[in-house]
Amino acid sequence: MQYEKLHYLLETNSSYDDIENQIEALNVRHGSFGQERKILLNKFFKNIIDNILPNYAKYLLHAADHAEDNTGEKIEKLKKFSKYQLTELMENGGLE
């Protein structure tokens, strides 16, 4: 849709500002920092995490992502646990 609009603007010899605005809109949507690219990268990283990382590493990432400022002690405890302790924690519902 946006490409057709740009094509139409070019064919009808529209103003430079209109063409520039349309190109900017395409950049925002499809550029290197575009919304669709960010969504796609997030999806790929989530798939990589789900398929490659072991469960204890997923738990650590999840705990670190959802940690509040006052839970620094819990995060420090998690860092000291072994792989088997983390697996047991996940099976039993995490830290109390």
Percent range for β-strand residues: under 5%
Count helical runs.
6
Strand runs, count: 0
* Overall pLDDT metric: 77
Q: Please describe the biggest sheet, giving its number of strands, its sense, and whether it closes into a barrel.
A: none
H/E topology pattern: HHHHHH
Tertiary shape:
rod-shaped
State the secondary-structure class: mainly alpha
**Model regions low in confidence, pLDDT < 50 over at least 5 residues:** none
Helix content estimate: over 70%
Structural topology:
Blueprint: H1 2-11, H2 16-30, H3 35-52, H4 55-65, H5 72-80, H6 83-91
Helix pairs in contact: 1-2
Characterise the protein shown here.
This protein is mostly helical and 96 residues long. The protein is rod-shaped, with a radius of gyration of 23 Å. The protein is built from 6 helices and no strands. Helix 1 (2-11) packs antiparallel against helix 2. The chain has helices spanning 2-11, 16-30, 35-52, 55-65, 72-80, 83-91. The model has no long low-confidence stretch (mean pLDDT 77). 75% of the residues lie in helices and 0% in strands. It folds into 2 domains: 1-52, no CATH class; 53-96. The chain starts with a helix and ends in a 5-residue tail after the last helix.
